[in-house]
Write a structure and sequence with these properties.
- The complex is a heterodimer.
- Chain A is of the alpha/beta class.
- Chain A folds into 2 domains: 226 residues, 3-Layer(aba) Sandwich (Rossmann fold); 79 residues, no CATH class.
- Chain A is built from 11 helices and 12 strands.
- In chain A, 46% of the residues are buried.
- By secondary structure, chain B is α/β, with parallel strands linked by helices.
- Chain B is 35% helix and 22% strand.
- Chain B has 13 helices and 12 strands.
- The chains are: A alpha/beta, B alpha/beta.
- At the A-B interface, helix 7 and helix 8 of A face helix 8, helix 9, helix 10, helix 11 and helix 12 of B.
Chain lengths: 329, 330
């Protein structure tokens, strides 16, 4: 994987939201590389900058108040941040597609599912109505909504939450995108449905060879689907590595604590490891390493000097002055 | 064994207002019987819409059950009059899922916490002292007492809601998805807080959640709910290590990150695809039989004709399924 060139590369991306005199640095220089056929999980808590990252890639950052202050997003030889909107429209939906968290919110309630899929096909691929309808039928079969086309003529309110999410995925993959962003696609769903959707995403990755950015706050979900995981905290990537590495050998204290704080049956009777304090607000990020006020390993250096993301072991990058050190919990 | 809470055949029917709605109704909770011992944590798991919250509300008489009986500490709640019931209510408190809507945005947290204490007829000096202790207990600085809910984060609000529930000095606390709206790093804090409080005040918990991982960590006994019924109930180790009901097995195998996270390596993953399940769901109509039949990989003729009832398969392990044998777990 390392040898091939990335499909999409985010370099030193910085985003700032302004509200009057207040400045909130939502992203403070993040680097991410996405490869073909790889599911890249991005884990973080609310307010850490996961969704801002995805809206930047899609070119959907609301501006104002949002403003990209630094960085590039390289895709297909172009910098997505530099190209004009007319050009971006050809990329968005066609080459880079997105699945949102709440399928109910992003499907238009006034149009049938079939119409919402064919709209994409007619607009981006220049299909005729009949061709588009045929293709829409295939797509629904692909996402497990039946080949009989019953769903084509349904309105969103006639579908269950899981079916709506499948329909969303069908719309997203309709133009064979090379890159898919899935922003918490299963958070609104029940556990049994969640697993089905995760399996579907993996199946589609295998079939279509897309690169996928999978955003979630749930380490368990990421463990289930991702090949590579990046952990984001207060607008910076703190750790990035292969999934197996992350769960067996986390180097950043934040990652370690997160993994240990997940309750399960084997921890019964023992105290859960917990992280004191809370996620800092984007307009008031601590100096130095943003995690230092909550970190059990913090030393003076952490308070003043922001660690940069460096490769600690091969293929395992971490941003911490005391990476890999352990402590008693 | 002394039961603190004992429910018998709780049924809650929601009546619709449409044509025939008043006649048919929807059985949201369909005959639940359970006992919760003093100092026990009972976990109720199930997917959304299975009636977990409705059951909790019926148990607290927030929405009185349509039929069935609830005894609390040996007293049958349905026999009590309004006035007598008020005395009981303070012993049973609830923490709701969403702390944002559980706190009145127009009341400072001091006012929110005072309300219950005023109702109990506690004078001001004592109230101030109690509130100080309560906030201390849940880890909120007393200096914040005059702030309003919007000035707090989700985790802090949940702590305040827990403090408010504790202000009534309850014996029994119903926790309805208390951490599912919180950030991952905050969840562990609240869970630890709840464990500490349980020990300190010898509380009894009914812990409602969709997260089997969390419930198996927190609770002594777990009941699995499906469509308004308890389909399996067992001590939590037994439920996780040898789940019997096909629905429980499905829930366990659906936990993302794989079965190893629950420590239940020994049973097979659900092999059936979503399509296969859906096709069967459509072809089999469960009218009189087992409610899980349309989704069940084990079901046959017996299941369509007769609804199973809960029966013992091991010590403290009950399951409602025709196809599950005793002891072997299958």
């Amino acid at each position: 994987m390392e040898a091939t060139t990335p499909l999409l590369q985010v370099e030193n991306l910085g985003v700032c939201f302004t509200h009057g005199a207040m400045e909130a640095h939502a992203l403070r220089g993040i680097d991410l590389s996405f490869y073909k056929e790889e599911i890249h999980g991005l884990v973080g808590e609310s307010g850490s900058g996961k969704t801002v990252t995805s809206t930047c890639i899609m070119g959907l950052l609301p501006s104002p108040p949002g403003k990209i202050v630094s960085g590039r997003i390289l895709f297909d030889g172009k910098d997505l941040l530099a190209i004009p909107e007319t050009e971006m429209r050809k990329v968005r939906g066609r080459q880079i597609a997105m699945v949102f968290q709440e399928p109910g919110k992003y499907l238009n309630p006034a149009f049938k599912i079939g119409e919402q899929i064919t709209e994409m096909l007619i607009l981006h691929l220049g299909m005729t109505k009949a061709q588009a309808k045929e293709r829409a039928r295939e797509l629904l079969g692909l996402v497990g909504l039946g080949k009989d086309g019953r769903v084509l003529d349904s309105y969103p309110h006639e579908l269950s939450g899981g079916m709506k999410q499948r329909a969303m995925i069908a719309i997203a993959i309709s133009c064979n995108p090379v890159f898919l962003i899935a922003d918490e696609p299963t958070t609104a769903l029940d556990v049994t449905l969640q697993l089905q959707i995760l399996k579907l995403i993996k199946k589609l990755r295998d079939m279509l060879g897309m690169g996928i950015l999978f955003i979630s706050h749930d380490l368990g979900v990421v463990n289930e689907v991702a090949d590579r995981v990046s952990v984001i905290y207060a607008g910076r990537i703190v750790e990035s590595t292969a999934k197996s590495q992350l769960f067996t050998n986390p180097l950043h204290p934040y990652t370690r604590l997160l993994i240990m704080s997940i309750p399960d049956a084997r921890k019964r009777g023992k105290r859960l490891a917990s992280i004191p304090g809370r996620v800092p607000d984007a307009d008031n990020t601590p100096t130095g390493c943003a995690f230092h006020p909550r970190c059990p390993l913090a030393v003076q250096r952490c308070r003043v000097e922001n660690p940069s993301l460096v490769e600690y072991e091969i293929g395992h990058a971490v941003a911490c002055h005391r990476a890999g050190e352990t402590w008693n919990i | 064994m002394e039961h603190l809470v004992e429910c018998k055949e709780i049924v809650k029917i929601h009546r619709g207002r449409g044509i025939g709605g008043a006649k048919r109704g929807f059985r949201a909770v369909d005959g639940i019987s359970l006992q919760i011992d003093r100092n026990e944590s009972y976990g109720l798991v199930g997917e959304s819409g299975c009636g977990k919250t409705t059951f909790a509300r019926a148990l607290l008489y927030l929405d009185p059950p349509t039929s069935g009986s609830i005894s609390f500490d040996g007293v049958k709640l349905e026999t009590l009059g309004r006035r007598e019931f008020r005395k009981f209510r303070k012993r049973i408190q609830i923490v709701f899922q969403d702390p944002n809507s559980a706190l009145n945005p127009k009341m400072s947290i001091h006012a929110s916490l005072s309300e219950g204490l005023i109702n109990r007829g506690i004078d001001e000096a004592e109230r101030v002292k109690r509130i100080k202790d309560l906030l201390d207990l849940v880890g909120i600085s007393y200096a914040y007492r005059n702030r309003y809910p919007h000035e707090f984060s989700g985790g802090q609000k949940q702590r305040i809601v827990i403090a408010r529930a504790l202000s009534m000095e309850p014996d029994f606390l119903v926790l309805d998805e208390p951490v599912s709206n919180l950030d991952v790093s905050i969840q562990a804090q609240i869970i630890n807080l709840l464990s500490d409080l349980k020990k300190e005040f010898s509380l009894t918990y009914l812990f409602i959640s969709h997260d089997l991982n969390l419930v198996s960590y927190m609770c002594d006994t777990i009941g699995v709910m499906f469509k308004g019924k308890i389909v399996e109930q067992a001590p939590s180790e037994a439920l996780v290590s040898s789940p019997s009901h096909p629905y429980t097995r499905r829930l366990l195998s659906s936990i993302p990150g794989g079965a190893q996270r629950t420590g239940s390596m020994g049973f097979e993953q659900e092999e059936e695809t979503a399509e296969a399940l859906e096709i069967r769901a459509r072809s089999r109509q469960a009218a009189t039989g087992c409610p899980y039949y349309p989704l069940c990989p084990l079901g046959d003729g017996e299941c369509t004709s007769l609804a199973p009832s809960l029966r013992d398969i091991a010590e403290g392990h009950v399951v409602s399924c025709h196809k599950v044998g005793p002891a072997t777990g299958r």
